[in-house]
């Protein structure tokens, strides 16, 4: 009597066209960094060298682009009110070189982003007591803004 778990493989081993079709299916759903796509494909691939060649081909044909992925992440994080430090963490999580996001990051007025976030959450008035001020500072720090920008934002008056 043989065990059923020994006779069937735990996962399929893709090669050739099947691996290529799987890669295209993944990329059709969302952007992946090269490292993420490699890790995902290796879960199903039979050969690591074949995956590396496929990734190079996809990258050369611009189906996969770390630069495009970096830009998408930056825009997504900004829409969610996150600052440069949180964006940097997200880039590291996806194993994308920070330099690829530099052009997108350089265009952003971080003071204006932080100010709009502060106004949306706490209103336009300057905090009068230390407890409220500390709460605003913690909120903006958690969102990834630098302390010099935070201090300007929490003390900002419209007519300054």
Automatic annotation (TrEMBL):
- In this chain the RecX third three-helical domain maps to 107-154
Q: What is its main location?
A: cytoplasm
Question: Mind naming one GO cellular-component term on file for this protein?
Answer: cytoplasm
Q: Which residues form the RecX second three-helical domain?
A: 65-102
Any one GO biological process: regulation of DNA repair
| Pfam families on file | RecX_HTH2, RecX_HTH3
InterPro entries cross-referenced by the UniProt entry: RecX_HTH_2nd, RecX_HTH_3rd, Regulatory_RecX, WH-like_DNA-bd_sf
Its subcellular locations are: Cytoplasm
Q: Which keywords belong to this entry?
A: Cytoplasm
Concerning its family, UniProt says: Belongs to the RecX family.
Function summary:
Modulates RecA activity.
Q: What is this protein called?
A: Regulatory protein RecX
Q: Which gene encodes it?
A: recX
